[in-house]
Amino acid sequence: MWKISFIMQKKSEKIIELKRIKDNMLRKLYLAFIAFAIPFLWIMNFYHHFLPSFENTDHLFPDMTLPDYIALIATALMAVLVYSYTQLYKKAKTKYDSLRHDIMDNIGAVICNCHEQCNCREEYIKDMDEKGIDLIIR
Ligand SMILES: [Zn+2]
Questions:
Q1: What is the DSSP letter of 112?
Q2: Residue 56's pLDDT is what?
Q3: For residue 94, how far is its CA from the centre of ligand 1 (angstroms)?
Q4: For residue 137, is it within any domain?
Q5: Rounded Cα distance, 39 and 76, in Å
Q6: Would you state the pLDDT for residue 49?
Q7: Chain mean position to CA 27
Q8: Number of domains the chain is built from
Q9: Ligand 1 centroid, distance to 120 Cα (angstroms)
Q10: Domain that holds residue 72
Q11: pTM
Q12: 73-97 per-position pLDDT tens digit
């Protein structure tokens, strides 16, 4: 990337950073989803604990145990977390894609400081591709 123009260098640094943020958010989203799925599966497995009883007047849910309550709270909390991470991931992805498209729109113009025929453009696209940033397909 040594021959790439200053503007392109700056944009490249920025898109690498945005990709890192986006990927990190996706990782958090996966983890939150797993943390959601475990107590959720518990509830599905013991769903009969969560059925109200109208015969017992003291407790509406006489079969619910402490782990059931914990699973219920954990599921609710993790659902909120999954939702927030989804929103944050969407935001990060939008930022990333908008810069990616900006680079793609400008990559047709001069991107380097060479004054002769060169393959900087090609090398640049390849280099970014190796970093997991696709500048070929929108
Ligand atoms: Zn060049």
A1: B
A2: 67
A3: 30
A4: no
A5: 9
A6: 92
A7: 6
A8: 1
A9: 4
A10: 6-130
A11: 0.83
A12: 999 999 999 999 999 999 999 999 9
Tokens (6 digits) for 92: 């990060």
Rounded CA separation 16/14 (Å): 5
Residue 1 included in any domain: no
Distance of CA 116 from the midpoint of ligand 1 (Å): 7
Residue 138, in any domain of the structure? no
* Token pair belonging to 37: 């799925």
Structure-derived torsion over alpha carbons of residues 106, 112, 117, 119, reported in degrees to the nearest 10? -80
- The answer to whether 128 touches 11, Cβ cutoff 8 Å, is no
Report the distance separating Cα 69 and Cα 50, nearest Å: 10
Using the structure block, give the residue that is written with the tokens 């991931």: 89
Q: How far is the CA of 76 from the centre of ligand 1 (A)?
A: 55
Distance 107 CA to ligand 1 centre (A): 12
Q: What is the mean pLDDT of residues 51-63?
A: 82
The answer to whether residue 136 is domain-embedded is no
